[in-house]
Design goal:
single chain; about 50% strand; globular; mainly beta; twelve-stranded antiparallel sheet; about 160 residues
Length: about 160
Amino acid sequence: MRLTPRILCVTALAVAVTAGASTAASALGPTASQRVDGSITAAGSTCTWADATTSADPPAGLTIDHSTVNDSLSCSGGASATLNNDPTATFDDAAGTATSDLIDITVNQSIVSCSYKATNVGWTRDGSTRAYVNQAFTASKSSGSFLCPDSISAEPGTASLSFH
């Protein structure tokens, strides 16, 4: 059963969704409306979401509302994902980086369900825009089938975020 590529894609997506919402800087461009869109591509599949809400506009520390991520999260290839927590995040506007605290997600592919947690996920701003790409990260399996990988890794730049 070849579930690993799609599970990796959806897992990385969910991590990206929540991790990146903290990274925009209000000094860059127009004021954000506490919304973020994003995408991730892995193993030939793409996952996207739109209009996820945050508790504040960056650069203030903020919390991501997991229900608004889940409302619009869709993936190609028959996989699905659910964000299980409301992650908080902080960022360093001067350095153009951000860090997400904890992302807890569940990935479903066919009849297999896998849960993963990632901590301290890093993000890098693209120039002076409100667009960000992920730094390399690893998420560890917290529960699920023996078919689930023990961990997943995301290469730098495989996820993107755009604040508006």
